[in-house]
Amino acid sequence: MTARMTDAHAPTATPTVVHDPLAAMHAIVRHHTDLFIERDADPDATPADATVAAVAYAAARRLGFIDADARYVSAAWARRCQGRPFDPADWPDDPADFGWTLPPTRFAPCPRELGLYAVLPDAAWVARLARAGVPTLQLRFKHPDPDRVAHEVQAAVEAVRGLPCRLFINDHWQHAMAAGAYGVHLGQEDLDTLTPDDIARLRDSGLRLGISTHGYAEMARAWALGPSYLALGAVFPTTLKAMPTAPQGPGRLARYARLARDIPTVAIGGIGLAELPAVAASGVGSFAVVRAIVGAPDAPAAAAELMQRWATLRADATP
Predict the structure, then answer these.
(1) 286-289 and 229-233: which strand pairing?
(2) Which domain holds residue 12?
């Protein structure tokens, strides 16, 4: 397989070249083995030429990045090498490397650290965890009846009223606006259904917006909207729903968190107590859980344990 790049993502300056493209590709792979995902890896990828962009594309494919993400990596690495020597250890991690700029008009901000972010199935669960002191909650209520959805969203908003927590509504952004929720969380498929006028209306309402991402291409799309936070995942295997990509792993999470440092970030996917040290070490601002709370025998106690463990890990990481 040969490396490819699209003109839309190619740098405009004279391409930086490397003396031995195959050796350079292998050096990148050796330096960044923590980014490897076997399911999407392409063992036959080789550089098409000696440019850094071609070398980086081939290395990213061998490390298991899907084609769209490998293209972003290749263009970012080429930009990063403009004015500096090629270094296989120097994975691009600055928005400028990717050509990303936040729009002048952004969604309302939320705290950089949202703490424990509990994703919950109905308003009763929201009420229970709000009373337990969980700082950030998401109502993920799935039902075909719009009236039932509207009722559940309103009940969840009422359940947190007067309590020191933030409530995001998954998907149902119009109901969230009508009920006066703190924010809304949208997936990539949800964004597909929105028109520019919808996005403007949502932004002008003052609702905070969180967006799910599963790699560089989706991060780029979300970044351009100026969201309140980015959700990064799925970090670990999860049975909650079918995922479009393999689990990203803590190595990629750390790269994504560094790249998205100008926006609050939330790690999601298969996270429980055992995974918290790796998540905290990545530098991500917050973490979301589903089964670790909803599936626990004592949900408030499980939440308290997660919050205490996270606070300890964050304190230990502070210089």
Answers:
(1) unpaired
(2) 7-98
pLDDT tens digits along 229-252: 999 999 999 876 666 678 999 999
| One domain, residues 151 and 280 | yes
Statement to judge: residues 302 and 274 lie in one domain: yes
User: Per the structure block, which two tokens stand in for 82?
Assistant: 């403009």
Residues 313 and 202 both lie in one domain: yes
Q: Which two tokens stand for residue 64?
A: 């298991």
Integer Cα distance of 231 and 299 in angstroms:
23
Q: What is the per-residue pLDDT across 267-305, written as a single tens digit (0 to 9) for each? A: 999 999 999 999 999 999 999 999 999 999 999 999 999
If asked whether residues 54 and 150 sit together in one domain, one would say no
> What's the pLDDT tens digit per position in 102-154?
999 999 999 999 999 999 999 999 999 999 999 999 999 999 999 999 999 99
pLDDT score, position 296: 97
| Shared-domain flag, residues 164 and 243 | yes
List all residues 6 or more positions away from 317 whose beta carbon is below 8 Å from its beta carbon. Answer: 280, 281
56 and 180 share one domain:
no
Q: Give the torsion sign (CA, 5, 8, 10, 13).
A: positive
pLDDT of residue 105: 94
Q: Is 222 helix (H, G, I), strand (E, B) or coil?
A: helix
Q: Is residue 103 part of a domain?
A: no
When computed from its CA atoms, the radius of gyration of the chain, rounded to whole angstroms, is 21
Q: How far apart are CA 93 and CA 76, in angstroms?
A: 9
The kind and range of the H/E element at 59 are helix 52-62
234 and 90 both lie in a single domain: no
From the list 255, 281, 251, 284, the residue with the least C-alpha distance to 268 is: 284
Average pLDDT, the chain: 93
Structurally, the chain folds into a number of domains equal to: 2
124 plus 175 within the same structural domain: yes
